[in-house]
Amino acid sequence: MSSIDPNLRALDLLAGAEGGFALSILDASPDCIKLLDLEGRLIFMNGNGLCAMEIDDFTAVEQRPWPVLWPAEAEARLMDAMQAAREGRVSRFEAFCPTAKGTPRWWQVTVSPVADDGGAVWRLLASSRDVTEMVESRLQLEREVARKDEAIARQTILMGEIDHRVKNSFAAVIGLLRMQSRLHAGGPAEAQLTDAANRISTLARVHDQLHLDPASGDVSLRDYIAALATDLAQALNAPIALDDRLPPNLRVMPAQAAAIGQVLAELIGNAVKHARPSGRPGLWLSLTQLGSMLSMALADDGPGLPADFDPERSRGLGMQICRVYAQQMGGALHHGPAEQGGAEFRVTLQLDTAAAS
């Protein structure tokens, strides 16, 4: 039969002088080799097999059905493998079976047909290799992976709780500052308290955008800036037209994304505050990648900048934040007139090339 392994035909020589030679080869194998009759009864086991299975005397198991040596849960698999061998097919599987003395063992089992001269199956060959060390190493690895997955799940829950507490803290501080601002209405402290509340509100929005996907180790800059700009536009009631020319696969680390978000928030906050205090200003945001640099420009349709405006001498906290962040990231803050008639501020900064695609 063509489906029978031709190498197994050597077992047909188990008679005469050649049979003794074949038996010596089987006995030398490090695997546990067993010959079964068609009913699945043991008729031969090599010496190393007896040793591996901790069987002192083969006569104790001779003519016993092979499955009785195995745990009950393996019986169905053994019966299927023997039936396949009777039909001329080879089966392989991995299963647990303790030795005759109870030592736990894992085995890689192959069950094959043995054909006579006419090609008919007349014996079954079962070969079992001890793979306990390999299986236990794999199971240990699986347990370690499961423990790490569990730890990651716990950490995710913890980070969610921390995130929730941070949001609540932001909200509490913002509420306190705005309450104090109302108490000082008309006084010199009102504007400062309102400005502080708006700045912390901006930090809260940056925090929200950075924690939308806590499982990710980096941030899609394009998605992050677009979401943050939309969020800030809604909060400040100032629509923003976005010209986004960033590559879709540009990603940065969260720390740099937070700095970029803070700069953007300060630019938008300043534009809303100074461009048209009594109404809604028009804002235009353009984003471009120039090699390893990010260019982020915000233009408005307000009255424009005073002729003597110099961000280096500006005492406003917003300009100082933008300038410091730009310098820290290897860039600069530029200003000038906008095409829309107002002011334009452009921040260039060096992207983290290790994180940028």
Walk me through what this model shows:
This protein is of the alpha+beta class. 43% of the residues lie in helices and 21% in strands. Helix 6 packs parallel to helix 7. Mean pLDDT is 82; it is low at 1-18.
Biggest beta sheet attributes: 5 strands, antiparallel
- Could you give the order of strands across the largest sheet? 2-1-5-4-3
Unreliable residue runs:
1-18
Mean pLDDT: 82
Strand content: 15-25%
How many strand segments? Answer: 12
Shape: rod-shaped
Assembly context of the chains: single chain
Helical content, roughly? 40-55%
Cα separation of the termini: 59 Å
Write down the secondary-structure element order: HEEHHEEEHHEHEEHEEHEE
- Judged by helices, strands and strand pairing, the structural class is alpha+beta
The number of helical elements comes to: 8
Rg to the nearest angstrom?
A: 38 Å
Question: Topology of this protein?
Answer:
Blueprint: H1 16-28, E1 32-36, E2 42-45, H2 47-52, H3 75-86, E3 91-96, E4 106-115, E5 121-130, H4 132-183, H5 188-210, E6 219-220, H6 221-236, E7 240-244, E8 251-252, H7 254-274, E9 283-290, E10 293-300, H8 317-328, E11 332-337, E12 343-350
Helix pairs in contact: 4-5, 5-6, 5-7, 6-7, 7-8
Q: What tags apply to this protein structure?
A:
357 residues; alpha+beta; 5-stranded antiparallel beta sheet; 12 strands; rod-shaped
What's the short version?
43% of the residues lie in helices and 21% in strands. The protein is of the alpha+beta class and 357 residues long.
